[in-house]
Q: What sequence folds into this?
C-alpha cells in the first residue's frame, strides 16, 4: 500500500513506512504495483489519476468541521490530526490553520519560500537572490540579499506567532522543519497529513464508507 | 523643469507642481521640452535615458550615511527626507528603511501588493485572486480570497509595526496611502522622494557639484 499527498510541485509518498518526495513528473511516470491511496490539490493531475485503476482518491471520505469555504484537502488532512493548536504546511504555499477543540476555525495562506524568491526575481533582476537561511532576525539587514531574506522570514514568523498566541504550532511540508526552528512552541511532524490518510484507509477497509 | 522617479513598473513625475504616474512605455514615448532631472532603478532603462541630451541623472549627486551596501537610489532619496523614523516606499516592491539621527540604519524589502498577487497565481490557479483591500485583520479568514488577502496585509503590517517600534512611519509610492491607513503612527507623503530631488537640483543650479 502506498499513501500519497500530491501538491503543486511535488508528491509526498509514504511507501512501506518510508517517506519519499518526488517531482510530479517523476511521480507520474512511476509504476506502482499495489493500491495507491492519494489526495491531490492539483486539479488537472487529479483528472489524470482518476483514470488509473489502482489509484484511489480519498478526498470524498475526509471531512472537517469548519466555517471555511473551499479549504484544500491537504489542509483538511493536516488539521484533522491536530485537536488544539496551529497547523503550518510549508510547501509551494504556506498554509496556516487554527484548530480549537477539534474544530477548524479558519486560516490563511502565505507564499512558499520558493514562491517568494520567484516573486522578487520577477520584480527586478536586482532582487534575484536565494533566501539566506542563516539570517539573523534580530538585526537590520545591510545588503539586498539579507534585506529580502529578513523580510520573508520575519514576516512569516511574526504572522504565525501572532495567530498562535502561545498555542502549539505543528509544522509539516518541505520547509516545515526549517521554519519550526524559529518557534519555541514549534513541533515538526512529517506524518501529520499521513495520519489522516492512514486512518481513512483503515476505515475504508473496515467498510465504514459506501463506495 | 520635470522631476522623475523611475521604478520597475511606472515613472512618477513632478511636472509644474503636478504629480503624474505613467507606465514606463508611455514615459519613454513622451516628448519633454525642458530639462528632465531623474533617478532610475531600472538598469536597462537608465542606459537608454543616458543618451537623451535633456535628461540629467541625479544619482551621482545624492549620498546617504549608511552601513548598507547597494541601497537603491529611490530608497536613498526617500530616506534623506526623514531625519527620524521608518520610511516605507510601496511600489513594485515595498522597501522599509530605518532612519535615526539622519543616518540610515538598514532596512528590508517585501514584495509589492501586485507581486504577491502574481506569486499566488504562479503557485496555483486556485490561488488566483486580487487582494481584498477591505479585509479585516481581526478575524480569521473563512475563504481563499480572504486567506490570501489577510496573509499579505497582516504580514506586511506586523513586520512594519515591529521594526517601527512606535516611531513615526512615512509612506510613499503607489500603495503607500492605502498601507498607511493600517497604522496610527503612519503618515502618507507623496513628496518624500521629490523633496530630495528638488534639493539636489537647487544645489546643482548653485554650482555645488562639479559636473
A:
Amino acid at each position: 500500500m502506498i499513501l500519497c499527498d500530491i501538491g503543486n510541485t511535488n508528491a509526498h509518498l509514504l511507501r512501506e513506512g518510508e517517506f519519499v518526495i518526488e517531482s510530479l513528473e517523476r511521480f507520474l511516470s512511476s509504476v506502482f504495483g499495489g493500491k495507491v491511496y492519494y489526495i491531490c490539490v492539483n486539479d488537472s493531475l487529479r483528472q489524470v489519476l482518476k483514470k488509473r485503476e489502482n489509484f484511489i482518491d480519498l478526498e470524498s471520505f475526509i471531512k472537517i468541521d469548519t466555517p471555511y469555504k473551499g479549504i484544500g484537502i491537504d489542509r483538511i488532512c493536516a488539521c484533522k490530526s491536530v485537536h488544539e493548536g496551529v497547523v503550518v504546511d510549508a510547501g509551494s504555499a504556506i498554509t496556516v490553520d487554527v484548530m480549537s477543540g477539534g474544530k477548524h476555525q479558519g486560516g490563511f495562506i502565505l507564499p512558499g519560500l520558493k514562491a517568494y524568491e520567484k516573486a522578487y526575481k520577477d520584480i527586478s533582476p536586482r532582487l534575484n537572490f536565494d533566501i539566506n537561511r542563516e539570517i539573523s532576525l534580530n538585526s537590520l539587514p545591510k545588503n539586498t540579499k539579507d534585506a529580502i531574506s529578513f523580510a520573508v522570514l520575519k514576516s512569516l514568523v511574526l504572522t504565525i506567532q501572532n495567530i498562535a498566541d502561545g498555542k502549539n504550532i505543528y509544522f509539516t511540508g518541505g520547509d516545515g522543519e526549517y521554519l519550526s526552528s524559529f518557534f519555541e512552541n514549534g513541533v515538526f511532524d512529517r506524518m501529520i497529513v499521513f495520519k489522516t490518510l492512514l486512518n481513512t484507509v483503515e476505515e475504508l477497509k473496515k467498510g465504514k464508507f459506501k463506495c
